[in-house]
Amino acid sequence: SIRAAMSGFEDLGLLCFWSICERLSAERASRFGAAVLAALGPRSSKHEKLIDNLTIAFPDWSDSERERVALGIWRSMGACAGEYPHLGAFGVRAEAQGIGIVTDIPPHLEANFRGARPTVFATGHLANWEVLAAAPRLWNVDLAVVYAPIGDGVADKRLRRYREQMGSRLL
């Protein structure tokens, strides 16, 4: 069917994109992803929906302001997408230089991280939200992440592999 063919083309495009990002440093892959989605996002069918949602949320904004914010959203999403092949590198303790996670547990959450009580964390999609799944591994905390597949093709299998590098179980 046409729908299956389109899904296959989308998977192929995403796999090619990630193949390039795998060969770049995490920082360069992030910048590359931001540039790619800044160029392609506004031309996609999803851009109109994004503008509609911004119009509902911010009815007083001008068209140019909505377009400016939408472009920032596309850039942010592209940066996150470019970082997927590097998620495993983010799941390390922060050193003096380079990427990593600060591993101090906030005092008000110590009981949660020591297993004294089960905990549910809910997060927003801010910056690269995937990185949050790496921190519990550094504290020896078992984490299960609710995961929504992006389809049933090879791109979803690759995305799942990237996410599994974070050390959490995907549900």
Walk me through this protein's architecture.
α8 (154-164) links the parallel β1 (144-145) and β2 (169-170). The chain is 54% helix and 2% strand. The longest helix has 21 residues, at 2-22. The mean pLDDT is 84. The protein has eight helices and two strands; from the N terminus they run αααααααβαβ. The protein has helices at residues 2-22, 26-40, 46-57, 63-83, 87-90, 110-113, 135-138, 154-164; strands at residues 144-145, 169-170. It is globular. It has a two-stranded parallel sheet. The relative contact order is 0.14. α1 (2-22) runs antiparallel to α2 (26-40) and α1 (2-22) runs parallel beside α8. It is mainly alpha-helical and 171 residues long.
Strand residues, percent = under 5%
Largest sheet: 2 strands, parallel
State the separation between the terminal residues, measured CA to CA.
30 Å
Alpha carbon gyration radius: 18 Å
Oligomer: single chain
- The tally of strands reads 2
Low-confidence residue ranges: none
**Helical/strand content category:** mainly alpha
N-to-C SSE string, H for helix and E for strand: HHHHHHHEHE
pLDDT averaged over residues: 84
Shape: globular
Number of discrete helical segments: 8
Residues in helices, as a percent range: 40-55%
Strand order of the largest sheet: 1-2
Question: Keyphrases for this structure?
Answer:
mainly alpha; 171 residues; 8 helices; two-stranded parallel ribbon; 2% strand
Brief rundown of the structure:
Helix content is 54%, strand content 2%.
